[in-house]
């Protein structure tokens, strides 16, 4: 494999990493990039590898929160009854509730949503994502972590199911839903990315066999590895970009981006594909 091909894979890793946290659909970007760069997509093992890199980055970002929540959760189970332990116990339950819908949807639709998605279809879904972000951009509710309800969790969980469709952003759909049910933006961001962890862990575990059975692994291990590293690093910076723009009430920037890329993708499908 020549250096140009290796650089293409590194670019895909870069693209996955930077777009995974921000609400612009990483899967949609990979479809567009593969089309433009001429990289054939063979199964889901490469994409799952990049998603695992993003998962590790999110675990690093939230490791203190995860340890604290886990300590209080198991402490509550062991009889600890202070308010913080009770709140974190309920928080974990709400994360579990929000995870259940995507588990069912992924199982039922795993053979329906595949790799054969056109750039034009991705463009339409990006426009939908942009509209949703535009509608929600200025909303900042009052609910904090301890005020999340079962209903809120179900709504966010159902919103996450929509992101099975390529071109619909997972972080975007869940952020929109979290803010729509009244969560403060800071708390919505935390809930969305802690919710990302169990889903991604499950996906990573289910894709291990696909990765090791990948017939191209013997020849592609180096570009896969470099793409993994690129995705890992850029996910961290992508999260920082999202957090910074949310803190400055500039979610509309992502709307503009989705509108621009969505329009380009549709035009590409019509005139050049």
UniProtKB/TrEMBL annotation:
Signal peptide: none annotated. GO terms for cellular component: plasma membrane. InterPro entries: UppP. It is found in: Cell membrane. The chain crosses the membrane at residues 44-63, 91-109, 116-136, 188-208, 220-239, 251-271. Pfam families: BacA. It is an enzyme of class 3 (hydrolase). The keyword Mitochondrion does not apply. One of its GO terms (molecular function) is undecaprenyl-diphosphatase activity. Keywords: Antibiotic resistance, Cell membrane, Cell shape, Cell wall biogenesis/degradation, Hydrolase, Membrane, Peptidoglycan synthesis, Transmembrane, Transmembrane helix. It is a multi-pass membrane protein. The keyword Repeat does not apply. Its main location: membrane. GO terms for biological process: cell wall organization; peptidoglycan biosynthetic process; regulation of cell shape; response to antibiotic. It comes from the Bacteria. It catalyses: di-trans,octa-cis-undecaprenyl diphosphate + H2O = di-trans,octa-cis-undecaprenyl phosphate + phosphate + H(+). Its EC number is 3.6.1.27. Catalyzes the dephosphorylation of undecaprenyl diphosphate (UPP). Confers resistance to bacitracin. Bacitracin is thought to be involved in the inhibition of peptidoglycan synthesis by sequestering undecaprenyl diphosphate, thereby reducing the pool of lipid carrier available. Belongs to the UppP family. This is Undecaprenyl-diphosphatase. It comes from Phocicoccus schoeneichii. The gene is uppP.
